[in-house]
Amino acid sequence: MSTKLNNKVALITGGSKGIGYGVAEALLAEGVNVAVTSRSLQAAEDAAEKLSKNKTAKAIGVKADVRNLIDQEEAVRKTVKEFGQLDYVIANAGLGHFGKITELTDQQWRETIDTNLTGVFYTAKSTVEELKKSKGYFISISSLAGTNFFEGGAAYNASKFGLTGFTQALMLDLRQDGVSVSTIMPGSVSTHFNGNNPDEKQEDEAWKIQKEDLGELVVDLFKMNKRSLPSKIEIRPAQPPKK
Fold it and tell me: What residue stretch is flagged as signal peptide (predicted)?
């Protein structure tokens, strides 16, 4: 029997755009109340207002930087104060700096690791007790770059390889507490990541994974019977352009 999602509560980091926004849309359509975070309060609140239109569930926007543990703890407090519980966490916030090691700056390295890896650690630390109460679900958004290295990817590969390993260890840490943990590892996704602008070249973006596809995947994971756990999911475009 599948799990009913109505009246559940989700916290999505980096939920004001891209993958996080797509996941929020899918969850709201299932009756899940959602808190989306962004480093910009305006971006978070604008996204929440747009997400809440014509939906039976509610979205709120929260200012929080995943690189700051206190910010993450405050985001959890605001979410629980607003909705009374926390059932789902999607650790989605991320960024990418790319370049050969001779070009990569110390600041770029730190920002990539602090956001993509330490940020997920902070998200887990700040939400774990609430997830234990609700027997909830924690999902990290990693990448195929978490198993496949490439030239110019030193910082990004390191962060995503680390994230994949971290999330799998977290799964082992929490499963006896009734908390499910998965990592989703997408390939090319049509978002504004790394300066891409899908709005200007829609035909060129059609072959890529769309944000709503990942929203559908998250919903499917949450609906699964709790006796089964897809702990690591790779997802890639079905038919990328021929090289």
Answer: none
